[in-house]
Write a structure and sequence with these properties.
This protein has eleven helices and two strands, in the order αααββαααααααα. By secondary structure, the protein is mainly α. Strand 1 and strand 2 form a beta hairpin.
Length: 276
């Protein structure tokens, strides 16, 4: 199946505010995604949820009994489990979004040839990008909802502000999903896809997930603070105890910019790949 030409797009794009980029029908991509979910094994869908839960149980309870209390975002002593739980919630949202926007997209792009077929209809690259990102957000939402429930069962939710953890998790997932799809478009082999894990693992370990940022030398702190996951971790910690500061706005702004840039990046990549 050959790529679409400019003439093909000119025909299908007449009368659209955004021309060939957007048909206003991302819903079609989303509906297809939900039909696939209904027919697939739900164990696969929720598998990424368990990793951060296991970390919380093993380190929050096991190691937490040795660590005792640590200083929370506002300096108030909290249990070690309460300290790492919001961070692991951010990790859970990231995992869900990254899986859907990378591995699933990789298969659809290189084996199923799904996007080429979609672009032979009235759909544009932005329709596909928004539809696929929404499905990644749905997975991140499920992970966040389940993990927040685990926190509640463990008695780690102590303020009504914790209700904001779920929408904040969706925002974190949105940031990662918007970039994940664009980055995957550069991958040609399964071996190259391992680079995503290579980046995610150190980001997970070094984004102050299990210990404060202050343990690092100052130059390393600046590097860590550039990580998107660090901003998600800090945002979740502040929400979990209802302690807000100007830094909260910085974390939110970071993800707002990440989302806008990521969506534009993904749309441009899809167009460059399939519009010749």
């Amino acid at each position: 199946m050959s790529a679409l030409t400019d003439e093909d797009y000119a025909i299908t794009a007449s009368g659209r505010p955004l021309g060939a980029l957007y048909a206003g029908n991302a819903r079609a991509v989303i509906e297809r995604g939900f039909r696939v979910i209904k027919s697939q094994n739900w164990i696969i869908l929720v598998s990424g949820f368990f990793e951060p839960v296991f970390y919380l149980l093993s380190m929050g309870i096991g190691l937490g009994s040795l660590v005792g209390t640590v200083a929370g975002p506002d300096g108030t002593p909290i249990s070690y489990a309460a300290y790492i739980a919001p961070a692991l919630l951010a990790v859970s949202a990231m995992n869900g979004a990254i899986y859907d926007s990378t591995w699933n997209v990789f298969f659809k792009m290189h084996f199923g040839k799904l996007y080429q077929g979609m672009l032979y209809t009235s759909l544009g690259p932005l329709d596909i990008a928004m539809g696929e990102i929404f499905m990644a957000l749905f997975r991140g939402f499920l992970y966040a909802l389940g993990f927040t429930g685990v926190m509640g069962v463990m008695g780690l939710i102590t303020t009504p502000w914790a209700l904001l953890l779920v929408p904040a998790s969706v925002m974190v997932a949105f940031g990662f999903a918007s970039f994940g799809m664009a980055i995957t478009s550069y991958m040609k082999t399964f071996q190259q896809m391992d680079l995503i894990t290579f980046v995610m693992l150190p980001m997970f370990l070094f984004s102050a997930t299990f210990y404060p940022l202050s343990v690092y030398p100052v130059p390393v702190q600046w590097i860590v603070q550039a990580f998107p996951l660090w901003h998600g971790v800090e945002l979740m910690r502040q929400i979990s105890i209802g302690s807000f500061s100007p830094a909260t706005g910085v974390h939110l702004l970071y993800y707002a910019v990440m989302i806008l840039v990521g969506v534009a990046f993904t749309t441009r990549r899809l167009r460059s790949l399939f519009l010749r």
